Amino acid sequence: MTYFETLDGLGAHLASSGVTVDNPDPGIPLTEWTDMLDRGPAWSNQPSVRKVVGFIARQLASTPLHLWERKPNNDRVRVRDGALADLLARPSRAPGMTPYRFWESLLIDGLIHDKWCARITEHFDGYELTRIPARRVKFASNWLGQITKVKITDNAGNTTEEDPAGFLIDVGYSERGANGTSPLKTLADILDEYTEAIAYRRQVWKNGARIPHVIERPKEAGKFEDGAFQRFKRSWSAFTRGGGQEGGTPVLEDGMTIKELSSFRPRDTLDLDGRRLTDIEVTSAYHIAPELVGAREGTFANIKAFKEMLYGPNLGPYYDAWQQALNLVLTPLLEPGRSVYIEANIEAKLRGSFEEQIDYLSTAVGAPIMTRNEARPRLNLSQIAGGDELVTPLNVILGGQASPQSGKAADAVIERFQLRQYRTVSSQKNAGVLDWWDRDRWDRELTADLTKDAGMDTNSARSLARLVNDQAERHLFQQFQKDGTHAHEDD
């Protein structure tokens, strides 16, 4: 008996025997072909997988990667020039391959196959990363599970072994070998059930009655006269699509009645529930809260709470794995001897609107933070003479308050306000109110209290109110999670 490792080898053997075989992709080893038959191309055939994997990959790939250098005084300086900085700005030189698309494709490999691999190529003017599709790469390992060789199968079905030192690699846990464990293997039964459920519902809808009624004619009416039945059918056909009397009311003959049948309806097949449960199972397999991808109704008070949940415990481990893989190989290779590191700029994702940033920063430093010539370019306006000096309002003293006593008065006002706020919000949350956080109300009330009872000017009071309510929102959200008062705690 003859065995073939690749489809290309099988095709060559059959061709030599005079048999023609259409082999669209000879680069897939036969040992992996059965897995593909079982799971199918999940990215294109499984909506839940594509929804969750695409969501994670998009969030990570759209986060800028910055290069920083740590100085002896523990300061850090952004590095914008050099081989590594240039590589981060343009990792691939393939036509039409933007940094976003490159990292998205590489990360999707990791999410679906639990491994990704990119070749590091040196050119006369810098470096380049070339993605090796996960289905074309395997890692040979020793008895400790440490990678010793990178096996790459080309389009002709030929496999070459290369030194892993020339590659950027990230592989998940595997019980045997060093090729990771695809989440799709764990989800195989659930995804198969989903596929079968779709096929079943399609057959039910295809074979089920479009109008679950029948027309009954009394037995004593006798048989239809010649041509009467055909005329009756034609008259009813006029009320169907294209008949000319769509939406009208047909008239039955004497003695006829319409009787409803017990027929399947789309809601009887629990279509939406089945899809929702599959989405939840897939998000759980990827350690993502179902609320973040719309698989379940969320309880986030606003977009800020959503972002903190998303980029904190949910996507945080994915960012760590990505950054560590880059720093492990690229920094010592391209920037030897320098204390540099690559970091994803997650702050860019968590950052609020420009107005919120200005309010927070001006409140924190107690004075304006931008000059006129720094602000004007944001509106596409040219700089002006004398616009490089900070302008501080005459009614603002250092710290934004007229005297030290203003700070003590503000503390007392904030303490009373937070007590009232906590009682109100807790009462609404315990009563099951979903929209329990009214940000506009709390900003408005605290601004009024600080202006009236602490003697602060309106602008300073408004900025301080926003800062206080931001902290209160985070604290309350974490407190409700800890106390188990989420609406879905019993799901």
Question: What does this molecule look like?
Answer:
The protein is built from 18 helices and 11 strands. The protein has helices at 7-16, 30-39, 42-45, 47-61, 83-89, 99-113, 183-186, 188-207, 228-237, 271-285, 303-314, 316-334, 347-350, 354-365, 372-375, 404-430, 439-453, 458-483; strands at residues 65-70, 76-79, 115-123, 126-132, 137-141, 147-153, 159-162, 167-171, 213-216, 257-260, 340-344. The strands form 4 sheets. It has a 3-stranded antiparallel β-sheet with strand order 2-1-11. A 3-stranded antiparallel β-sheet has the order 4-3-8. It is of the alpha+beta class and 491 residues long.
What is the fold's blueprint, element by element?
Blueprint: H1 7-16, H2 30-39, H3 42-45, H4 47-61, E1 65-70, E2 76-79, H5 83-89, H6 99-113, E3 115-123, E4 126-132, E5 137-141, E6 147-153, E7 159-162, E8 167-171, H7 183-186, H8 188-207, E9 213-216, H9 228-237, E10 257-260, H10 271-285, H11 303-314, H12 316-334, E11 340-344, H13 347-350, H14 354-365, H15 372-375, H16 404-430, H17 439-453, H18 458-483
Antiparallel strand pairs: 1-2, 1-11, 3-4, 3-8, 5-6, 6-7, 9-10
Helix pairs in contact: 4-6, 4-10, 8-10, 14-18, 16-17, 17-18
Ends apart, CA distance between termini: 54 Å
Report the sheet with the most strands, covering strand number, pairing sense and barrel closure: 3 strands, antiparallel
Q: How would you write the strand order of the largest sheet?
A: 2-1-11
Q: Identify the overall geometry.
A: flat
Query: What's the tally of helices?
Result: 18
